[in-house]
Q: What sequence folds into this?
């Protein structure tokens, strides 16, 4: 907050008149340049300023991309467990959404090809880095297959890379856009996770003509973003403050992930089965048979612990036996307390249900098929 306040004041003092006037609807040039440099150096996505549009969060980016690409009735494939706000924006643009299965390797790319055999597919929207909500990273073979299908079938790939900075295991996984030789990927990013969601800064990286088109659409609802904030944030990126903050946050989140994992093993082994996610900000856990996940979540909420159940993420809105447990916003002590309360809130099992411990041992297999 202190750094941002200083950068904001400096921006206003040094260029207030210009920043408070009408400006480029694509965003402040400094921020577009800083974001282009950032995605090129940290994400391997070749981009110049002309490829970047700054939006108010990725939600605006998804809305604009939908409106630019979709004609009423066009099919957009989405993940069967996924991010509902994106689906609703695409629907509003006139898309007919078709869900594709997600498993332990991410989106089922063969299912996309099978869908494209049956009818034209305009685009596919996905979260390949840490699939939302299951946290799975799209397998390397599937990434290549997806880009290949998209190129051959002329399907636009809308890549929502909302948490790029937070990968804890092994080398960073680069976005699909970094390997996109055919120009089919529209890369959507955000500073909501790495900096703050209230800043409302997201961005699109795409071929320049699409950026122009998106900017023209943007002016119809929002002439331009907050150029004072954009300039301040550009300075924080140029000064490496954002990256420094991201490195600190990454260390903290990794420790929180581990603390949550250990607490769940201690208090709820046999009832929740999960793999520690390779990155991201949540654990996706399977609830043992015989336990009503939604009733349990309601009881936990009454005890002050908010748990998201699978119903929130399923395309058909139906219940499935999974929890998404966010850990990034709580420290280790809070996480341990939250898990204790969650364990106390566990409803009694239905009689005759299978032994949950057996299910826990087969967690690897259970986690493979998510839908
Ligand atoms: C899958 C996904 N995409 C994007 C976002 C970020 O949205 P925004 O940039 O509009 O704040 C989120 C935030 O929760 C998300 O979960």
A:
């Amino acid at each position: 907050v202190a750094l941002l306040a200083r950068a904001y004041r400096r921006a206003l003092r040094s260029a207030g008149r210009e920043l408070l006037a009408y400006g480029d609807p694509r965003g402040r040039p400094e921020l577009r340049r800083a974001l282009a440099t950032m995605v090129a150096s940290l994400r391997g996505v070749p981009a110049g300023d002309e490829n970047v549009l700054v939006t108010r969060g990725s939600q605006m980016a998804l809305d604009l991309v939908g409106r630019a690409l979709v004609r009423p009735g066009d099919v957009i494939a989405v993940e069967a467990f996924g991010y509902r706000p994106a689906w609703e924006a695409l629907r509003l643009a006139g898309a007919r959404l078709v869900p594709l299965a997600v498993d332990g390797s991410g989106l089922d790319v063969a299912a996309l090809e099978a869908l494209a055999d049956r009818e034209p597919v305009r685009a596919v929207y996905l979260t390949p880095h840490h699939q939302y909500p299951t946290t799975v990273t799209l397998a390397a073979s599937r990434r290549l297959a997806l880009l290949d299908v998209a190129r051959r079938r002329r399907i636009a790939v809308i890549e929502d890379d909302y948490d790029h900075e937070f990968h804890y295991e092994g080398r960073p996984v680069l976005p699909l856009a970094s390997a996109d030789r055919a120009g089919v990927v529209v890369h959507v990013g955000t500073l909501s996770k790495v900096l703050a969601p209230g800043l409302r800064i997201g961005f699109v990286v795409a071929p320049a003509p699409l950026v122009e088109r998106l900017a023209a659409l943007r002016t119809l609802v929002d002439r331009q973003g907050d150029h004072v904030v954009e300039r301040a944030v550009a300075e924080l990126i140029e000064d490496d403050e954002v990256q420094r903050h991201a490195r600190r946050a990454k260390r903290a989140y990794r420790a929180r992930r581990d603390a949550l994992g250990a607490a769940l093993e201690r208090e709820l082994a046999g009832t929740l089965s999960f793999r520690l996610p390779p990155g991201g900000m949540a654990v996706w856990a399977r609830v043992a048979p015989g336990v009503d996940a939604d009733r349990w979540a309601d009881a936990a909420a009454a005890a002050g612990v908010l748990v998201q159940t699978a119903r929130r993420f399923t395309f058909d809105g139906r219940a499935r036996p999974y929890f998404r447990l966010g850990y990034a916003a709580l420290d280790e002590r809070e996480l341990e307390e939250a898990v204790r309360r969650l364990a106390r809130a566990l409803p009694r099992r239905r009689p005759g249900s299978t032994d949950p411990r057996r299910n826990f041992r087969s967690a690897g297999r259970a986690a493979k098929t998510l839908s």
Remarks:
- The radius of gyration is 21 Å.
- The CA atoms of residues 27 and 316 lie 37 Å apart.
- The mean pLDDT is 94.
- The longest strand covers residues 185-190.
